[in-house]
Each structure stands twice: as structure tokens, then as C-alpha cells.
Amino acid sequence: MTDWNVRPVTSADEPQWRELYRGYREFYGVPQDESKLDVVWSWLGDEAHETHGFVAVDEQGRLGGLAHVRRFARPLSATTGLYLDDLFTSTEVRGGGAGKALLLHLGDYARDSGLSVVRWITAEDNTTARRLYDAVATQTSWVTYDIVS
């Protein structure tokens, strides 16, 4: 089993991050568009932007997974939470603990930052990921809606 170190993404991670993010887009059937990767990468490099990235790194310095998060207000509880927009592990390491390491790190990060929850959505048929999610989190009863503009 690989020992995964989770840390914030750095500028040196760009080539491996791009490879992972292309894999993420492919997994969800989103067309490849380097201009979209450019935008997301620029967000991750901008400390003032709401989106922040974390990566799971093995002993050789290879990235095995990524997570993109942002804080969000929770008016009913008068707290702030952490929203996980993207979580992806490469097919080569899937099932090897990188995803779990990322999720556990985000839980620790949220607690250490005084955030009340880490929240995310996933596709109903994403059974492999849902096995991991069920092991580290509680599924809620909320249903998601979108108004596309």
C-alpha cells in the first residue's frame, strides 16, 4: 500500500495536475478543452480565488489524485463549510488509498480551520467512489437541482 502525502497544489505540479484533470474530464464525458484547464489552473494559482487545490503525492513525488475545494456559507447554522467540487484519482492508483487520503485530509483541514462540514455530490451510478464515500462520510437525503443559465 502506498503512503500518500496530501498537500496544497504547487506550481511545480502543473504537468501532472493537467494529466489528472484531463482524466477527470474524460471520466465524466466532458470534452477536452485546454482553455478550460488553463482557467482552472489559474484559479488554483491565485490565492485570492475561492477555489483551492490539494494533491495526493506518493514517495516518488508522483501525483495520484487531486481535490478542488472552496468555502461556502451555511446560513441556517451560521457556519462556513468546505465544498469539494472535484475529486479524482488516476486509474493506475485507484483503490490504493489516494482518494481516502484526500478525503481524510480535507476533514482534518476543515476541523483545523473551524469549518462545520465537508460536502460534495457525486453521480448516483459512481459505485466505486460511493463505496469509499460511504466508508468516510454520511450520505444525506438532499436532492440536487440545477438551473442552467
UniProtKB/TrEMBL annotation:
Q: Name one GO molecular function term.
A: acyltransferase activity, transferring groups other than amino-acyl groups
Q: Supply the InterPro entries for this chain.
A: Acyl_CoA_acyltransferase, Bact_Acetyltransf, GNAT_dom
- List, alphabetically, the Gene3D superfamilies matched: 3.40.630.30
Keywords attached to this entry: Acyltransferase, Transferase
List residues of the N-acetyltransferase domain.
4-149
Which Pfam families does the record cross-reference, listed alphabetically?
Answer: Acetyltransf_1 (PF00583)
Signal sequence coordinates: none
UniProt name for this protein: GNAT family N-acetyltransferase
User: Which organism's genome codes for this protein?
Assistant: Pseudoclavibacter terrae
Give the source lineage, highest ranks first.
Bacteria, Bacillati, Actinomycetota, Actinomycetes, Micrococcales
